[in-house]
Design goal:
This protein is mostly helical. It has two helices and no strands. It is elongated and about 50 Å long.
Length: about 60
Amino acid sequence: MRAAEHYRQRALECYLIAEGIADPGKRLAMFELARGWVALAAHAEHETRDAASLAGSPGDRRAA
């Protein structure tokens, strides 16, 4: 499983747990934790795209 997918799965788990929490403060904390996992997933995807573009074909690079 790719890192971003793993992080999104964790976010979903936190969201589902939050839905079942009655205490507003604890519920909010769990939603914030879910949001953190989503942000981490976005960061991981960005890093993956950057690494892929850096590993692009040699024809994409300009000679110095």
